[in-house]
Amino acid sequence: MTNFEDSREFAGTCDRDDPLATFREQFNFPLEKNGRAPVYLCGNSLGLQPQIAVDYVHEELANWHHHAVDGHFHTAHPWVTYHRRAVSGFVALTGARESEVTAMNTLTVNLHIMMASFYRPQGKRRKILIEAGAFPSDQYAAASQLQMHGFDPEEDLLLWTPPEGGLHLRTGDLAALLEREGDEISLLLLPGVQYYTGQVLDMAAICELGRKHGCMVGLDLAHAIGNVPLSLHQWGPDFASWCTYKYLNAGPGAIAGAFVHQRHHENQRFLHGWWGNRLETRFEMRPDFEPAAGAEAWQMSNPPILALAPVVASLQLFEQAGFDALRDKSATLTAYLRWLVDKRFGELIGTITPDDASGCQLSLIVRHPSIDARGLFDKLCELNVTGDWRYPDVIRVAPVPLYNSFEDAYEFAERLGAALSAARS
Ligand SMILES: Cc1ncc(COP(=O)(O)O)c(C=O)c1O
To answer: Which residue's alpha carbon is nearest to atom 13 within ligand 1?
Structure first.
């Protein structure tokens, strides 16, 4: 974009013209530090607290207080079906059908539960493919699934790597890898957005390639949900899961989401627990298992309501704002921050997030040997800028369209300038 201006007035005008600006007031921001208001750009790690989430948690504490065990069945939103309150929000953000999504567990747990169903090695088709820079939990989960089946991750965990010297994954390289080894691969376990670089992967193409080569496809949408558009039903991964504490703002360790494509709802093998039994017969306490319809059958335990209430609350804000409007703002806001950093500090700081495949996260790297990247990050923290540090040298910042403003982007550039001066002196 060329019509941006490097001035506080310009940022203020953008904020005044922003139809989503009032959502910011519905969030609780962290405290002042060293006399400075927070510039919070860390929704890629932990989203801010929506005020409505506090109300929803209090409501369930009050239900427990006043109704005790009757809260399961006899309140306005009985706990026994409370998870269904997340369904419409998940549908809107993932492009799934209602029966394909549910709220349960946490992300890594769900990846394992899904792999119990969808990683089914047979003969020489036994490998799992991940990307070389996969989030460690996904690497550990995939490697341990291989080990549980008696295989050796050294041999059977395949890596999709960026070209030598590069950082970005190319769909063409995945296609070539699958041409070579596709008949030995059982499962592709890949992210929607790469957590380190912020690159948005071509999820539609990944699903198509997986299908073409007879592999199952599972997506980790931790950095994608609430950030970039998704069409899960249409793209057709076999399963997906996402956490809700990043862009979905549901709080630390909040209950995650899971997707199982409709084509697997009948006759699929999966791990059973009583919460996956049809509600109609669940409390008859029969010895035999009668699966619920759709993704709900994958539930096992009754969910922690206090960690689910903020998910339900927060999804309402997304429904009110509308994802298309959020995505429009996100594209402009992130482009503005990128433009400011490049214009002011382009010789010192680079952005490794691809321009044409990004959500709201930007991953910044220090380009100049005179600057210690970690020192720069610590200085930003002192100035009450919250981004996050990813070893060995990346500072991630994410202007989130629900609660960040254009003035936040401007103020970030100001404080980055001050931090750079301090880091160089
Ligand atoms: C891409 C990705 N996958 C998995 C996880 C692990 O999430 P959890 O601790 O909820 O299992 C994270 C956490 O940040 C993540 O970013």
So the answer is: 222
